[in-house]
């Protein structure tokens, strides 16, 4: 049997499994999915878990079942590209004929002293659970600072405001406005929503270091009872340790088939891959569908047919009743994008499950 090992059961990992299973698998192929958890966590909704507005169970998606799919649980410690082995904790290892790396990302602290020690995260299910505990144990009038005014920071701040109207909430960002990569029209709408809901947004904050209970903006000390980091991501440590070509963000540079050029049996999907668009669940899923088609073509001895990946847009939530989005070049705001986001989540759970 030839083994195709998929590392990571997130959006990219499950999408490639589904793409492979949608067509007839060769009889000598065994798919092996390796993940730390016995289910996928819907990462795009971790902000709501942290805020306490959804239950843990609501964000779980069961892994698929198929006679040629084996699911293993474990912690990847390293990848031996030359030996075609994946090393796990407790001295275990898995050999492969083909490998898909879809391990996702972790926080990037940009060298800020104390950030890894004194902030909370929403980059994994485990860390989000800890963040939920931290936030929801706070007494009334506590100060919560969210570092980073991108999509994750904005959604978390809005959801937490609806969950805990008694808290003081601030977003600290180094740019001149929240959602700095979005059109200014959307930023202004979100800023107005925050003002109406008593969420403070502070631009031009350059965090120098973080201590227990304090954030240093140059010489200014910002008091903080809980600090959440949403100011950057990078590939997980296992990918950081791989000695292959990477871009400035630490993501692996690939050929047109999403393979590592020196190791064409290895494919990289999602947040670990150097792609021409920002990391997202949508991008990981779209890339995975293409990679599944590439793999099937190569198994048939054919030249894969590639098509450009087109993303549908971005949707964000401001609590349960308002939202915003970018569909192509059009900005959308208000109730409609929030309903669309809820619909996308429902479809995602239905399709992945």
From TrEMBL:
Its cofactor is FAD. GO terms for molecular function: NAD(P)H dehydrogenase (quinone) activity. Pfam families: Pyr_redox_2. Gene3D superfamilies: 3.50.50.100. Keywords: FAD, Flavoprotein, Oxidoreductase. Residues 3-285 form the FAD/NAD(P)-binding domain. GO terms for biological process: aerobic electron transport chain. It comes from the Bacteria. PANTHER family: 64 KDA MITOCHONDRIAL NADH DEHYDROGENASE (EUROFUNG), APOPTOSIS-INDUCING FACTOR 1. Belongs to the NADH dehydrogenase family. This is NADH dehydrogenase. It comes from Paenibacillus crassostreae.
């Amino acid at each position: 049997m030839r083994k195709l090992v998929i590392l990571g059961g997130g959006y990219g990992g499950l999408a490639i499994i589904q793409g492979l299973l949608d067509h007839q698998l060769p009889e000598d192929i065994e798919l092996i999915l390796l993940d730390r958890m016995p289910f996928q966590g819907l990462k795009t909704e971790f902000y709501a878990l942290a805020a306490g507005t959804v239950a843990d169970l609501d964000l779980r998606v069961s892994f698929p079942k198929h006679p040629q799919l084996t699911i293993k649980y474990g912690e990847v410690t390293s990848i031996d590209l030359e030996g075609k082995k994946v090393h796990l904790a407790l001295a275990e290892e898995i050999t492969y004929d083909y490998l898909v790396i879809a391990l996702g990302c972790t926080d990037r602290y940009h060298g800020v002293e104390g950030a890894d020690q004194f902030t909370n995260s929403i980059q994994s299910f485990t860390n989000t659970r800890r963040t939920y505990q931290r936030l929801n144990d706070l007494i009334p009038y506590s100060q919560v600072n969210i570092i980073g005014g991108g999509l994750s920071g904005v959604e978390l701040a809005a959801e937490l405001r609806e969950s805990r109207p008694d808290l003081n909430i601030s977003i600290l960002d180094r740019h001149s406005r929240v959602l700095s990569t979005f059109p200014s029209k959307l930023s202004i709408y979100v800023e107005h929503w925050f003002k109406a809901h008593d969420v403070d947004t502070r631009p031009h904050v350059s965090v120098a270091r973080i201590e227990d209970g304090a954030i240093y903006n140059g010489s200014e000390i910002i008091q903080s009872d809980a600090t959440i980091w949403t100011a950057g991501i990078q590939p997980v440590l296992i990918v950081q340790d791989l000695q292959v070509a990477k871009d400035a963000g630490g993501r692996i540079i690939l050929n047109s088939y999403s393979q590592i050029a020196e190791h064409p049996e290895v494919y990289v999907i999602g947040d670990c891959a150097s792609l021409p668009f920002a990391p997202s669940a949508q991008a990981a899923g779209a890339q995975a569908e293409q990679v599944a088609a590439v793999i099937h073509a190569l198994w048939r001895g054919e030249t894969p047919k590639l098509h450009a990946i087109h993303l549908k847009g971005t949707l964000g939530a401001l609590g349960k009743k308002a939202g915003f989005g970018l569909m192509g070049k059009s900005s959308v705001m208000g109730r409609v994008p929030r309903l669309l986001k809820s619909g996308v989540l429902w479809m995602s759970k239905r399709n992945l499950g």
